[in-house]
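Course assignment 3, question 2. Fill in each field.
Student: A.L.
Task: Predict the tertiary structure for the chain below.
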Amino acid sequence: MVWHITKDVEEFLDAAGGFLRARPVENTVLLTVAENKRLRGLDPHSAEARGVDGYGAEAAVFGWREGGDAAFLRTPPRAALISAMPPEAAAELAGVLADRGLPGVDGPDAAVAAFAAEWHRLTGASGQVRRRHRLYRLDSLAPPTPPARGSARRATARDRDLLIDWMTTFSRDIGEDAIEAEDFVDDKLAHSGVLLWEVDGRPVSMASETRAQAGMVRIQAVYTPAEHRSHGYAGAVTTALSRAALDAGAAHVVLFTDLANPTSNALYQRLGYVPLEDRSMVEFNA
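Answer field:
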């Protein structure tokens, strides 16, 4: 099968959009990043596009396999993000990208393993697993008991400085140095995509969400500052945002966890999220 590579997000979505939207849960990141890039291209100065191009200075690269069973994208300097795909498709993609240079690859375990093996054969670069994460989908929401003190509210522009500070700390804590906190926050504020949990009028926790795509919303950046932890605020704000997404019409609410964090994995399962698949981010070493 032939792989097609482009820097044109419209061309990519015309060709691969059907594949991505047919399985919006499994393709959650590919779909939301591509749609955000498309939105930015339509009108980079619009309020809706504000912040969504915070993926690095270089142009994004997109690709799909003829036959419609695989896709990938890369927003430099990040690793290539690949969909679930047959092992032979992953090996073919490694061959297509071998002369472009990659810092790594991220995606479902089996596809990443096949890609990394072929990458090593072609380039001599070995792969090291930097992070493993698990995709969850909400089944039946189960609010925590007893409920945490406080209440939820949507963040607004007046919360921007606080959110940037929290996102900077959050990204450092999880080792995501490439996250641009200001761009991330501006993107979320542009579509009212951040929920704050407050106690006595003071924000103590946050959670954010992606724009809805193909009936799917992804919960992101659930963060509680260290001084406010162990009070149930993360569970409370995640529950509130999950409920809001469902009330707004989402058919699928999903999130990722770091498999090295047993606390978050246990929390989301208590809230009604069920595990779907595990993923790896592999870094290549020369």
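Instructor remarks: The first helix runs from residue 9 to 22. Confidence is low (pLDDT under 50) at residues 45-54.
Grade: pending
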